[in-house]
Design goal:
Helices cover 43% and strands 15% of the residues. The protein has 486 residues and is of the alpha/beta class. The strands form three sheets. It has a seven-stranded parallel beta sheet, with helices on both faces. The longest helix is centred in the last third of the chain and has 24 residues. 43% of the residues are buried.
């Protein structure tokens, strides 16, 4: 397999110039590219707009063979592949919504090694047609990239259980290849606190990974939180904020599909150019809404967390959290969609007062998600008593509703080990993690109701304590602007 020893840095720069039009990298892009060409495992945490995709696309194109890119969303995959094809580069994506003839053609390109980059979801990666072809001993594989890697932590225990099986992929693919073969793994994300980084290293079984991290601080992005005491006041606060954003592109975030639909309809009736966006819409409707927002036919989208990854609109001037996310990681992901062009932007979050006596909507919403998690945990513990100690996830999924999700949760608790991407082995209950840590929802609640500098709090939450100490008063959050001068 091709290694960095046969690729000079001049060749790297020439390829960069030829296909991307730039002569120099932005730090730390060059360090990441060198690590990937040296076939090292890498864990990369770069803020939104930091040029993460280039860091794995360029090494993939410089090497002969195939690089697999595991990505969470269809829109994200299609956008990146289209950009690569516009540059006449051999990339493709595979997903379930493809016409059969197109899918067959991509599978044939995979077999005949005509691709350098193949984008696919975790579920597609582990589907029989793809997995069988990847296990062909003659197929040259250069690496496995996990894009938007925080999704493994955020969704792997709930509705995307295939993420939790990715750590067994490398060993299974190397087992059918010549001795001495390697398959480096690189995980890329804009947001991963220290706990999330540990999960990624453990689940993906990263081997002495090169760590590359930049803190999430954005001096052009003003963070603010406004407390409301009723649903009516929340509505009025939103309307007041929107009137201040005339003709400026933005995003309104809510937590449920129903709220996305209802709020968008109400705002449309008031004359706003907007539309709902959530995972329950058809792929065609989601693409249409994305395109309309990118073209400024819509001023803003009323969306759930399903919107945003891979959608790059640099002139997004504001993000409004009509309802706040449950975790700081989600919050940073969503506010980071504003101000990517470096110009001034604002992110406002509307929250119920902390006691919940006057407005308990936030508390009820958090309780709903907490109850859903508890139900999942209960089902998983019931499943342990009904399945064999060693078995196959496909058989469990057929026999039990939510079987795959339950196995994923057991894996997260140390009660299960994946022998390969399909076969599991239960572990003794004593192996279960008992660490007593603050829940993500509690950390988010503290952040929203804190009087400390918000950017300082975020830097501490993401493990950048030294940088937080140097920041002192940031000057671009509501708490700092309220506080008196020292």
């Amino acid at each position: 397999m091709t290694t960095s020893t046969s690729i000079t840095w001049d060749q790297v720069l020439q390829t960069f110039q030829r296909h991307w039009g730039y002569s120099q990298f932005r730090p730390p892009q060059d360090d990441i590219i060198r690590s990937l060409l040296d076939r090292r495992d890498v864990l990369v945490v770069l803020p939104t707009g930091g040029g993460k995709s280039l860091c794995f696309q360029l090494p993939a194109l410089l090497q002969s063979g195939l690089t697999l890119v595991v990505s969470p969303l269809l829109a994200l995959m299609e956008n990146q592949v289209q950009e690569l094809r516009d540059r006449q580069l051999p990339a493709a994506t595979l997903h379930s919504q493809m016409p059969p003839h197109q899918r067959r053609r991509i599978l044939q390109d995979l077999e005949q090694q005509r691709l350098r980059l193949l984008y696919l979801s975790p579920e597609t990666l582990l589907s029989p047609p793809v997995w069988e072809r990847l296990c062909a001993p003659t197929l040259q594989l250069n690496g496995l990239i996990l894009d938007e890697a925080h999704c493994l932590v955020q969704w792997g225990e709930t509705f995307r259980p295939a993420y939790r099986r990715l750590g067994a992929v490398r060993q299974a693919l190397l087992a059918v290849r010549p001795p001495g073969s390697t398959l480096p793994i690189a995980a890329f994300t804009a947001t991963a606190d220290p706990q999330a980084q540990r999960v990624l290293r453990d689940v993906l079984q990263l081997q002495h990974p090169q760590m590359v991290r930049l803190n999430p601080h954005r001096a052009n992005l003003h963070l603010a939180v406004k407390t409301v005491i009723s649903s009516g006041q929340r509505q009025r606060a939103m309307e007041h904020f929107l009137r201040q954003q005339t003709h400026r592109a933005g995003l309104v975030y809510v937590r449920t599909r129903q709220d996305s639909e209802t709020l968008a309809q109400n705002l449309q009736a008031q004359g706003y150019r907007t539309a709902p966006y959530h995972a329950g819409l058809t792929g065609q409707d989601r693409r249409r809404t994305e395109a309309a927002w990118m073209a400024d036919d819509l001023q803003f989208v009323v969306c759930t967390s399903a919107f945003g990854m891979g959608v790059n609109k640099p002139n997004t001037r504001w993000v409004l959290h009509y309802q706040t996310p449950c975790t700081i990681t989600e919050y940073v992901q969503e506010v980071g969609r504003a101000g990517r062009d470096g110009e001034a932007a604002v992110a406002l979050s509307l929250v119920s007062e902390p006691t919940g006596w006057l407005d308990n909507s936030d508390r009820q919403r958090a309780k709903f998600f907490e109850t859903q998690t508890q139900r999942l945990q209960h089902k998983a513990q019931q499943l342990v008593r009904q399945i064999p100690a060693t078995g196959d996830v496909r058989e469990v999924s057929q026999a039990f509703p939510h079987g795959a999700i339950s196995l994923s949760w057991l894996h997260s608790q140390g009660q299960l080990w994946w022998l390969d991407p399909f076969r599991y082995q239960l572990q003794p209950a004593a192996a279960r993690s008992t660490a007593n840590t603050t829940s993500p929802s509690q950390a988010m609640h503290r952040f929203l109701h804190s009087r400390q500098c918000r950017w300082q709090s975020l830097l501490v939450a993401f493990g950048f304590r030294t940088e937080a100490q140097y920041l002192t008063r940031c000057g671009h959050c509501d708490n700092c602007l309220k506080s008196p001068a020292p």
